[in-house]
Specification:
Number of helices: 10
Oligomer: single chain
Structural class: mainly alpha
Largest sheet: 2 strands, antiparallel
Helix content: 55-70%
Strand order of the largest sheet: 1-2
Radius of gyration: 19 Å
Number of domains: 1
Distance between the termini: 27 Å
Length: 325
């Protein structure tokens, strides 16, 4: 149960606290965040690993997670006054009821930071069990129920704070997209395996972990600052697509090279964590009205926790590699 418990807590700490949307004063909100973020991350990870699937399936199911959270639970994709942030003020497409820049941005946050980064980090903390299931069927059912409760709780608390219900057509559309992504993710599980056979690996060597980490940090940072860039709306959309397509292609090619393993996977996660950590220092919480001093203390605390988690994962990954015959 150790990796399950660690992932349950790590996912919300990364998704909300390291990002800086909430501070130390909102720690009681973990009662909702753990089922919502932690439950979602564990559920996706277990469904994929139980069937021998790998990262492509995790990424697609993470996208479904984002659509469920932002399209059905909080409905931020459709609410023009969500968190009083005016998120739909630029790039709004009336036929879809969404703003393209916000949709791409928030779904990217969920895929990269809410799901994939916590899973990669925790799996590297337990390298000998990285691709193994951590739960039996009973545990999987409990996690699924926990996640559903988290979604319901998020929907209720959001409605209380920012009363809004999207038109039924938009909710149905979001549900259909989520279902399509879930089906695609499940199909990817059946097609792929988490590790590429050595015989199929490229003759070229995988890049060093430090290089992977730097590239990850730069790409993740660009994604985070894209909404602030002084360029036209569709220029920001182009930045999103360019960075994400380049990341998918690059990681796919790198992962097929000889020597790609836990160190590089951890480096990807570490780069993403670094981007979230520094980005929190240039913003203010979206949901906490607290002093700047408390905000910056929170930023320091959660950045330090992220650094400690990477250090622990690096140590355990190295120990696992030393034990490999």
């Amino acid at each position: 149960m150790a990796p399950v418990l660690v992932l349950l807590v790590t996912a919300p700490l990364v998704a909300e606290f390291l990002l800086g949307d909430v501070t130390l004063v909102s720690l009681p909100a973990l009662a909702i965040f753990i089922p919502l973020y932690g439950g979602g991350a564990v559920l996706i990870r277990e469904v994929v690993r139980r069937k021998g699937g790998g990262w492509p399936a995790i990424v697609v199911l993470a996208a479904a997670y984002g659509v469920i959270g932002e399209g059905l639970a909080t409905q931020s994709l459709f609410n023009p006054n969500y968190a009083h942030q005016h998120l739909l003020s630029t790039g709004y497409v009336s036929a879809l009821g969404i703003a393209i820049p916000w949709t791409l941005y928030v779904l990217s946050l969920h895929v990269i930071w809410s799901i994939c980064t916590p899973i990669a980090l925790v799996e590297c903390m337990f390298p000998t069990r990285r691709t193994e299931p951590w739960l039996g069927m009973r545990g999987l059912i409990i996690i699924a129920v926990l996640y559903v409760l988290g979604v319901v709780a998020a929907a209720i608390t959001t409605w209380v704070s920012f009363p809004y219900i999207a038109p039924p057509s938009r909710l149905i559309g979001a549900a259909m997209v989520a279902v399509a992504l879930i089906i695609a993710g499940l199909l990817l599980i059946r097609r792929g395996r988490p590790e590429r056979p050595a015989a199929e690996a490229s003759a070229r060597s995988a890049p060093a972990a430090w290089l992977v980490g730097i590239v990850s940090a730069i790409a993740a940072s660009i994604l985070l600052i894209a909404p602030r860039l002084p360029i036209a709306t569709w220029g920001k959309v182009t930045v999103f697509f360019t960075i994400e397509v380049a990341a998918i292609v690059t990681i796919t090619l790198w992962s097929r090279r000889t020597g790609w393993g836990d160190r590089q996977i951890l480096a990807l996660a570490a780069g993403a964590l670094f981007a979230y950590a520094w980005h929190a220092f240039i913003g203010r919480p979206a949901f906490d009205s607290t002093s700047l001093v408390i905000t910056r203390i929170s930023n320091v605390v959660f950045a330090a926790l992220a650094a400690a988690a990477v250090w622990i994962a690096a140590r355990r990954t190295a120990q696992g590699a030393d034990r490999t015959p």
